[in-house]
Amino acid sequence: MKDLVSRCPIEEVMQVLSGRWPTLLIYYLQEGTKRFGELRRDNPTISHRMLTLELRKLQEAGIVERTEFEGYPLRVEYNLTPAGHQLVPLIDALGDWWETHTSADVHEVL
To answer: HTH hxlR-type domain: which residues (predicted)?
Structure first.
């Protein structure tokens, strides 16, 4: 990750949650445990490599937990940690704010 400019907690959290994928992954993981392929289906335009990198970043931040199960093929599941679950209301609030404060014209452009 890039070096921080300040020690502001907002900068630190934005370093983890910024970009297209982290908040979407948290949004889909709030439904419960998911396997890698399920997360790819939820986010069909994310590449395999990018999904791997984003999940690792969220793991390192303590937001997502990865569980491996023995056997062949290796089965891996992802779920939110308690810290990850605490982010869900914040992400929902951002979505609610967007819906309340933007016009239908803006939604069509995006």
So the answer is: 8-106
